[in-house]
From TrEMBL:
<comment type="similarity">
    <text>Belongs to the peptidase S26 family.</text>
</comment>
<keyword id="KW-1133">Transmembrane helix</keyword>
<keyword id="KW-0812">Transmembrane</keyword>
<dbReference type="Pfam" id="PF10502">
    <property type="entry name" value="Peptidase_S26"/>
</dbReference>
<dbReference type="GO" id="GO:0009003">
    <property type="term" value="F:signal peptidase activity"/>
</dbReference>
<feature type="domain" description="Peptidase S26">
    <location>
        <begin position="10"/>
        <end position="171"/>
    </location>
</feature>
<dbReference type="InterPro" id="IPR019533">
    <property type="entry name" value="Peptidase_S26"/>
</dbReference>
<dbReference type="InterPro" id="IPR019757">
    <property type="entry name" value="Pept_S26A_signal_pept_1_Lys-AS"/>
</dbReference>
<dbReference type="InterPro" id="IPR019758">
    <property type="entry name" value="Pept_S26A_signal_pept_1_CS"/>
</dbReference>
<feature type="transmembrane region" description="Helical">
    <location>
        <begin position="12"/>
        <end position="32"/>
    </location>
</feature>
<dbReference type="GO" id="GO:0004252">
    <property type="term" value="F:serine-type endopeptidase activity"/>
</dbReference>
<dbReference type="GO" id="GO:0005886">
    <property type="term" value="C:plasma membrane"/>
</dbReference>
<dbReference type="InterPro" id="IPR000223">
    <property type="entry name" value="Pept_S26A_signal_pept_1"/>
</dbReference>
<dbReference type="GO" id="GO:0006465">
    <property type="term" value="P:signal peptide processing"/>
</dbReference>
<keyword id="KW-0645">Protease</keyword>
<keyword id="KW-1003">Cell membrane</keyword>
<feature type="active site">
    <location>
        <position position="77"/>
    </location>
</feature>
Length: 180
């Protein structure tokens, strides 16, 4: 009887150790928690939200990424321009390679703030000094364009400075959602 109890305890102890190691590996290398600071991604991401980011999938237009900027700070922004793109805003409208592109994630923001221009006119060529975004570089903006330090101030983001893509807001619970 005593050996059976000891075997059960030993089995559970091994299971807990293996699961703990697996959880640490997943948390450290695959699904990484990050706290949002600042209001530049509001209302998509709010200050003090906790998100889970992953660093194994390809970056696409409008993905929200976490990266280290040239000034050494860590930021969370939305990818607007991909390598080879020409980005332009004119009268609050995004143009990629001279084609009009809708930004559905800004629809609710613009609805509530229609008293002023949300995204001031810009041309990536003026900011970067080159017609197209260079290879392995991204042009990023915050969703709250009027309060965001982004590619308009520090240029493009190198692919090697990207830490990961935001996937899920998990805290606070009432703000939990899949990030789009």
């Amino acid at each position: 009887m005593e050996k059976k109890v000891l075997d059960i305890v030993w089995h559970w102890l091994k299971l807990i150790v293996v699961c703990s190691i697996f959880a640490v590996i997943v948390q450290a290398f695959i699904l990484i928690p990050v706290e949002v600071s600042g209001k530049s991604m509001s209302p998509t991401l709010k200050e003090n939200d906790f998100i889970v980011m992953e660093n194994f999938s390809q970056i696409d237009r409008f993905d929200i990424i976490v990266f280290t900027s040239p000034d050494g700070n860590t930021y969370i922004k939305r990818v607007i321009g991909l390598p080879g793109d020409h980005v332009k805003y004119e009268k609050d409208q995004l143009y990629i390679n001279n084609e009009k592109v809708e930004e559905p994630f800004l629809k609710d923001i613009k609805k509530h703030k229609n008293e002023y221009v949300f995204t001031t006119d810009l041309n990536s060529e003026d900011i970067l000094g080159t017609k197209k975004i260079p290879k392995n570089q991204y042009f990023v903006l915050g969703d709250n364009r009027r309060l965001s330090k982004d590619s308009r101030s520090f240029g493009t983001i190198s692919e090697t400075s990207v830490l990961g893509k935001a996937r899920v807001v998990y805290y606070p619970i009432f703000h939990s959602k899949i990030v789009k």
